[in-house]
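Take just one protein record:
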Amino acid sequence: MQNEVLKALRERRSVKSYLPDPVPQDAIDAIIEAGLYAPNGRGLQSSIIIAVTDKETRDRLSDLNKRFFPKDIDPFYGAPVVLIVLADKSAPTCVYDGSLTMGNMMLAAHSLGLGSCWIHRAKQMFESEEGKKLLSDLGVEGDYEGIGNCIIGYAASEPEAKERKANRVFYIK
């Protein structure tokens, strides 16, 4: 069986090399909207998204992420857009809600011809004093957990699919 959604699910890959070209605002808005429509526990809609296209702020986030990253490279791989997903800690499904938000946004980016990748360490970033200050400076109030950084941009190269591992599905009929 095949349709556009199933095709996108099979073809989307994590992109780790980006062109410096800016992403149009309408594409960013469409990706964010897809994230806002992700499934969420008990209808609480616990996820929030911070869209960063300002290079100075993006680079500040990259430097903050590097503190928890063992390599001396840009953890955002040169992507011009970072969509930070946080979720309200009071929601019992906050991590799952934020994860689904991330998944929807990565699929939406792919559907628009853009590359994306989930960059970890958002939890550590926004538990740090600098991360808390950044959120405060942005006017984000509340007790949020960092779920992920969804980087977006035009892929400099297309990654290849890895072979799927065998014996990962068990049927009980």
